[in-house]
Amino acid sequence: MTERPHDVTVLRGRVLTFHSEPQGPDDTASYRYIEDGAVVVGDGKIIMIGEFNPRAAAHHTVIDHRPNLIMPGFIDPHIHFPQMQIVGSYAASLLEWLNTYTFVEEQKFGDPAHAARIASRFLDELIRHGTTTAAAYCSVHPQSADAFFAEVIRRNMLMLGGKVMMDRNAPEGLRDTPQAGYDDTKAGIAKWHGKGRAHYVISPRFAITSSPEQLEMSEALAREYPALHIQTHLDENLAEIEFARELYPNLRDYLGIYERYHLLGPKTLLGHCIHLTDREVEVIAATKSVAVWCPTSNLFLGSGMFNHDRMQKAGARIAIGTDVGGGTSYSMLRTLDEGYKVLQVQGQRLNPLRSFYLVTLGNARALGLEGRIGSLVAGADADLVVLDARATPQMALRMEAVDTLANELFLLQTCGDDRAVAETYVAGKAMKSALAA
Ligand SMILES: [Zn+2]
């Protein structure tokens, strides 16, 4: 073989990757599992995966992660980076929480030094929890997106994000104007999109904080940049829905607002989707928009419970995210655990194969980034997580009685958190151990 990358590293461990959506708890055809496996990485990419071969590995650096699992890095498709310091703020419901804490906190991000400090801590926290890609809302200030992407590029992470556009129903320090929101987003796209592994996202925060003129400007941006993602919130809380409908009285429902401005489509991420009408479910499915389920947030704010089976039956695309700081944990394992319980009380099931599919390949597909992230295939970016199901004394004891891969995954999601993340690789580089050092 010629032209081999010079920095080839062999990661040895129990390798697990999905290649299709599991159809049930025993769907062994949906994934590939290699007991003594190797992920060969070089120049930030996966070169190959397969059985560990001592002879082939002899000339390369080998990092032995056995008996831990090597999987694609986790993907979080809904998170707010300026909300790190309000996680766990005591409030009765969404609108109170926004007005009392969030809209106060986010005003700090007009200060570039503060934005830079939090952006750095934010990416550290994601790495600590095994999350290698996220779709992040920044604050209204363009400097918050600048701070975010500067850190993203410094770490060579594949991240999506954008400054939120919001021009009403928020304090003055958090309002832009339709024109400023448009101009700043355009400037942000020119500055950051496609740089390193950065993806700029068109981000009208939600219907309540955007005037019709601002949604028109969002529509103009979406038309000018059809390759870009759009992120916003939908049907999270009953009072929010009532307010949104008062603001747009002539439209059929909440989703009808985004529909009116042509903001729906396969690149659109709709956070929450809790209280949907039948029509809204149909339109989400028909437009191939993505419903992003955020269980820790929905429970914490008392917003409601995501009806997974209804969405699945309708053929809607589903992703799962944290929604920190309404969400209470950066951990996709904690998120799966809460998600599991949200479905349990509704008489629905989330089997462990589907869980781990969702936070890897499922979320990658939701973002349209499969092949690049979310699975361990040759040519994909080498963004990986190494999971230790014996990370705590109680997990180690419990593992003594675990005899299947599915049960190990279920233990990881039920009892695991950042302690179960033994290592996180970003573009082939070990990043979690470097944080601790
Ligand atoms: Zn959110």
Structure characteristics:
single chain, 437 residues, alpha/beta, binds zinc ion
Helix content: 25-40%
Number of strands: 16
Beta-strand content bin: 15-25%
- List the ligand species: zinc ion
Give an overview of the whole structure.
There is one protein chain. With 437 residues, the protein is α/β, with parallel strands linked by helices. Helix content is 38%, strand content 23%. It has helices spanning 54-57, 94-105, 112-128, 142-154, 178-192, 212-224, 238-247, 254-260, 278-287, 295-300, 308-313, 332-344, 352-366, 393-399, 405-415, 432-436; strands at 9-18, 31-42, 45-51, 61-72, 74-80, 131-137, 159-162, 164-165, 198-204, 229-234, 268-272, 290-293, 317-320, 384-387, 421-426, 429-430. The strands form two sheets. Strands 5, 6, 7, 8, 9, 10, 11, 12 and 13 form a nine-stranded parallel β-sheet that branches. The structure holds zinc ion. Residues 78, 80, 233, 271, 323, 326 line the site of zinc ion. Residues 78, 80, 233, 271, 323, 326 line the site of zinc ion (ZN).
Secondary structure elements and pairings:
Blueprint: E1 9-18, E2 31-42, E3 45-51, H1 54-57, E4 61-72, E5 74-80, H2 94-105, H3 112-128, E6 131-137, H4 142-154, E7 159-162, E8 164-165, H5 178-192, E9 198-204, H6 212-224, E10 229-234, H7 238-247, H8 254-260, E11 268-272, H9 278-287, E12 290-293, H10 295-300, H11 308-313, E13 317-320, H12 332-344, H13 352-366, E14 384-387, H14 393-399, H15 405-415, E15 421-426, E16 429-430, H16 432-436
Parallel strand pairs: 1-4, 5-6, 6-7, 7-9, 8-9, 9-10, 10-11, 11-12, 12-13
Antiparallel strand pairs: 1-2, 2-3, 4-14, 14-15, 15-16
Bound molecules: zinc ion.
The site of zinc ion (ZN) has 6 residues, from β5.
